[in-house]
Amino acid sequence: MDSGHTAWLLMSSALVLFMTPGLAFFYGGMVRAKNVLAMLMKNYVAMGVVTILWVLVGASLTFSGSTTLGGYSVIGDFNLWGLRDLGLSNDHFGLPYPDNVHIMFQLTFAIITPALISGAIAERMKFTAWAVFIAIWSLLVYVPVAHWVWGGGFIGADIEALDFAGGLVVHINAGAAALALLMVLGPRIGFRRDIIRPHSLPLT
After folding, report:
1. Which phi and psi (to 5°) does residue 67 adopt?
2. CA-CA 20 to 30 A from 96: which of 75, 181, 184, 202?
3. Distance of CA 187 to the CA centre of its chain
4. How confident is the model at residue 191 (pLDDT cuts 50, 70, 90)?
């Protein structure tokens, strides 16, 4: 293992993780004052919900094994559930940094993706409904797509597509989910009737 690679990935993990509170403040400044706290919490809850799911089964379904459909790998398996057998060695992934550092780095992307979606449902969705949505969406949508691209699935392994910055896994994934939610929820109450001013442009 290489200490330089490990240090860089640890720093990168921290930087990506900081995007979530940054995004919370950005979205919080764009909504009306009465909805600031709700907007902040919709971002922060992603850190808790996604982390629990990622540790229990998400990382395993993304990076462990392969379940094929029509000859293409579409999802992983449960061999690494609870992150068992992963530690400070690089025995599982064979990367120049510890396995658990790799999983932590990937976790930060799993967190920021649903946080990105929250901007689309500003002032449109209750907190409890949002928490349930991100739990279901993370397992049924984010994890399979992450496996397809980064976990040895058919896009990364068979098509040999390269996605270093999460163009498909994060941005297209979040954008498609945001559009689908908007089509279901519709515009904010009072849209085109009331003046809806941002709470704090400096905060954004």
Report:
1. -110, 120
2. 75
3. 24
4. confident
Q: Which CATH superfamily is domain 3-74+81-185 in?
A: Ammonium transporter AmtB like domains (1.10.3430.10)
What is the average pLDDT across 87-114?
Answer: 90
**pLDDT, tens digit (0-9, with 9 covering 90-100), for 40-95:** 999 999 999 999 999 999 999 999 988 888 888 899 999 999 998 887 887 788 88
